Amino acid sequence: MQDSTPFSFTLVITGAPYSSQAPQSALSFAAAAIKAGHRVDRVFLYGDGVQLASALASPPSDEPQWPREWSTFLEEHGIPGVACIASALRRGLVDEGEQKRYELPASNLRAPFTIAGLGEWVEGRMSSSRTVYFHGSD
Amino acid sequence: MQDSTPFSFTLVITGAPYSSQAPQSALSFAAAAIKAGHRVDRVFLYGDGVQLASALASPPSDEPQWPREWSTFLEEHGIPGVACIASALRRGLVDEGEQKRYELPASNLRAPFTIAGLGEWVEGRMSSSRTVYFHGSD
Amino acid sequence: MSTLIVIDQPPYGSWAGREALDMAFSLAAFDQPVSLLFCGAGVNWLRKGQEPGTIRQKSVEKNLAAAPIFGVEALLADGDDCKRYGLEAEQLLDGVTLVQADSQLFTNYSHTAFAG
Amino acid sequence: MSTLIVIDQPPYGSWAGREALDMAFSLAAFDQPVSLLFCGAGVNWLRKGQEPGTIRQKSVEKNLAAAPIFGVEALLADGDDCKRYGLEAEQLLDGVTLVQADSQLFTNYSHTAFAG
Amino acid sequence: MTEIQTLHILNKSPEHPRFARCLSIAGPADTILLIENGVLGLSTASASASGKVLALEPDMAARGIVSQSGTVETVDYDAMVALTARAQQVISW
Amino acid sequence: MTEIQTLHILNKSPEHPRFARCLSIAGPADTILLIENGVLGLSTASASASGKVLALEPDMAARGIVSQSGTVETVDYDAMVALTARAQQVISW
Questions:
Q1: Which chains have 3+ CB pairs within 8 A of F?
Q2: PANTHER family per the record (chains C, D) (predicted)?
Q3: Cystine design at C10: which of A123, B23, C2, C41 (Cβ 3.0–4.6 Å)?
């Protein structure tokens, strides 16, 4: 097996930004994968990782804005970013559809992230060559 | 010292709902403190604990809605609930003032929670008889 | 080959275990073979007689009892960890298989994942 | 009497330590006496030569160097934990006092808190 | 009612480094209150503490932990509040 | 380029129970890649692993961890990607 064989990846992020290093490690990994000619099929946010899809994160201006950096990366490379619906709803991450459905005062999901079920994760595992998880640390 | 001597408490919650047990433990403690005739001066949300002030959390209907339960409790007893501004902004918890200031598409802070600096915590420590912390578990 | 979902955190104190369970149930729902391994403090998921009503949570016992029905192939638990937490056979939920969570066990699965 | 803020988690992997530091700086800003204790994996905050630019974080070394200026009374570190992480005296940041984080130490402070 | 020097509220499982540290730091005039995952310490042969050890009953019941008769005193949230008032200092681990 | 059976990505510090478990589970045909807090394992006298141990250089540099000459091979994110492709299975701890 050669390093140059193109691979495809599903990445799963379970650690939140500004709480864990997972979003940074995953972004550095994803950029390196694409640079090597591999494909990133999908990024799936699970558990506390759904916070990465927040449209409202406002860190100090001298710190990386991880939700924005990830959004830009996903858009540039046409990669779907999906937040698990069960994790997202519990943690107050909602799109306009869920806002209406639950009669909430606002929505806060940052494009191009979408909300979907764990089926997206199951499908990613089946169709990608490798699924790599980025968890919170300690 | 008698158990019946009235005390005042500042409670600090650093664990998020639907990720840790901290909001439940803290609410059970706060209710018991008030039942015993003590005062709860203030509840301060810090770190991941700021997620407890989300106006958008939508857990399944057979699970407690912790942000709502806490809001109701605070209102019933006239207790100020304060989310640390630095923790809240990084994690995408903003009120209308911060929404305008940072030109964000929405706000998601649940009343009666307000956003303020760590000075509120320092002041609480000085004025209350006891400060009790509720951290995330493992 | 099958997927192994590992739960090494105790129940109720955090949500990671519940989210691991959801992963296992989802795989099973899509007809993907999956087993659950409880190790470390995670073996406390398997103790009989959990009554979490007062702390406002639902018992995970019922979820685990439903695992075979949903198609989860096996509930595995590390025997040494059970012993360390004083879990004798009669205190364990039904349907749990005691194993040794070693190198050998993991080679039986093509994928292994934690929920967080 | 003084407050002790304890940092027992390593830097960069989580934000809890940074938030503990903010707590200490806030107390100092309000003229409340405060010291920091680094123990367990938290002693890794005190290693010289941290270069977190590639992982997109700011060095905590600079924050710690500012601690005395902001009025933090002492930076304490558990000596045994430093040894365990191979931190010899010459690899430690300046201004750190090695102590034994035992029962006796904690009785010197009227308040002790972790950030999370 | 005896005075408590420090009340240690311990919510971590025995696997967490804070569990052992809390036990090693608690002095003879201190009380350790096990809550949340901390009550799992009752089911392991953990290092014994020099202070008194109590456990929160609702967290024990949730986890199916039954107190061996006489080994540990159990308390409810009301008693937890009373303990924090009796103690000169409270440390949450 | 040799085949890797399982690549273990370990991001926890030596204090975390998963650190010891990962080391005990990795077999001789496996590779352990220390990332994030995991690189702190290089500075402790941790139980040695039977598999090969690598460490992510940016996480070492962040924490001021200098590799003792020859004790551990360091990799960058590009090499981390290549490792995941070479391994038959990847486990993130």
A1: A, C, D
A2: PROTEIN TUSC
A3: C41
Q: Chain A: which residues have CB within 8 Å of chain B?
A: 16-19, 47-48, 51, 54-60, 63, 67, 89-94, 98-99, 102, 104-108
Task: Tell me the one-letter amino acid at B90.
Answer: R
Could you list the pLDDT tens digit for every one of the 93 residues in chain F? 678 999 999 999 999 999 999 999 999 999 999 999 999 999 987 657 778 999 999 999 999 998 766 678 999 999 999 999 999 999 999
Distance of CA A80 to the CA centre of its chain: 9
What is the dotted CATH code of the domain comprising D3-114? 3.40.1260.10
User: d(Cα E82, Cα E76) in Å, to the nearest integer?
Assistant: 10
Q: How many domains does chain A have?
A: 1
The question of whether A84 is a catalytic residue gets the answer yes
* Cα D107 to Cα D91: distance, rounded to the nearest angstrom: 29
A65: alpha, beta or left? (left if phi > 0; alpha if psi -120 to 50)? beta
When divided into structural domains, chain E yields a total of 1
A2 part of a folded domain: no
| Residue A17, both tokens | 């930004």
CATH at B122: 3.40.1260.10
- Tell me the one-letter amino acid at B99: Q
B70-103: per-residue pLDDT in tens? Answer: 999 999 999 999 999 999 999 999 999 999 999 9
- How many Å apart are CA B128 and CA B131, to the nearest integer? 7
Q: Which two tokens stand for residue B33?
A: 């403190």
Please enumerate in sequence order all residues whose Cβ is within 8 A of that of E70, keeping only pairs 6 or more positions apart, or say none. none
Q: Do chains E and C touch (3 or more CB pairs under 8 A)?
A: yes
Q: What is the rounded CA–CA span in Å between residue E9 and residue C108?
A: 42
Q: How far apart are CA D14 and CA A133, in angstroms?
A: 17
For residue B2, tell me if it sits in a domain. Answer: no
pTM for this structure?
A: 0.97
Residue A2 has pLDDT above 60, yes or no: no
Q: How far apart are CA A107 and CA A86, in angstroms?
A: 16
Q: Which residues of B86-110 are buried (b: 16+ CB within 10 A; e: fewer)?
A: bbbbbbbbbbeebbeeeebebbbbb
Buried b (16+ CB within 10 A) or exposed e, A104-127: bebbbbbebbebeebebbbbbbee
Q: What's the ipTM?
A: 0.97
Q: Under an 8 Å CB criterion, which residues of E touch C?
A: 11, 13-15, 36-37, 40, 43-45, 58-59, 61-66
- Extended strands (E) in chain B: 8-13, 39-45, 81-84, 114-116, 130-134
- What is the three-class DSSP state of B82? strand
Question: What b/e readout covers F56-77, taking b as 16+ CB neighbours within 10 angstroms?
Answer: bbbbbbbbbbeeeeeebebbeb
The DSSP bridge partners found for residue C92 are: C47
